[in-house]
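To assess whether ligand presence alters the predicted conformation, the chain was also submitted together with zinc ion. Input:
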Amino acid sequence: MKYTNADICELVAKLEGFIGRETSSFNINEWYGFNNSFKQTAYFKVCQGADKNGTGKYNFYKNKLPTNKIFIIIKDGENFCYREASFNEFDYTQSSKISIAKNNLNNFKHLIWDEEIIEQINATNVVYNRICNRNEEVNKKAIEDLLNQNPKQCYYCGIDMKTINELNNASILNSSLSWHHSKGLTKRTTRMTLEVEQLNPNGGYVKGNIVWACSWCNNAKTDTFTEDEFKNIACGINIAWNDRLQQIGSNSKVIFPWQNQVKCCK
Ligand SMILES: [Zn+2]
């Protein structure tokens, strides 16, 4: 399974109303922190299997987790279940833990596995981790806000994920198109998405300097063109998207965000 424990914790956290990542201390020994709209924090942890060489129980070690609201999540066969737990449940041994017997899952809630939501959580976490690991000029909250932004569309040409997928499918399936290809819009499957782009390439991943850009705009803009220069270039990309949508008889239209600002495309 490609989904990480952090992804699964986020899915449960969302269901429980904890929608924002606790950015200052997100991961405490695999307890993952999320905040709700009342600024309360809760920590979530997954146990993927029972302790094999001992008791056969599901163990949740406290480690360095300070007192908090907590939820414990168990992988029981192919399914996940979870419940809120209390700090009083940690035993007083040196390796303080909550132990759940396999036959004691009655008061756990079944986790409704929504593939579409977990897929989206996973995709955004991959982006988040990639950016946070490679660059020190990262404001995690700014990235978080951008990831939660809806709808997501290319800042320059206006395309969104749904339209990218629609054009990609058409390019694979419809061999009469001049842009037909068995691999879709591009062979580089990791470059067929919306990416996080810095408006000023030296400005860092901070609030006001990051936007979504499609792989094609991001790839073409590089660190050469300025934001305003590239809006003109993106106008041409936008025309190509809409031409293609027309060719496949689609009802979708990619609205160009900068119609009144650009020199071309009048
Ligand atoms: Zn674009």
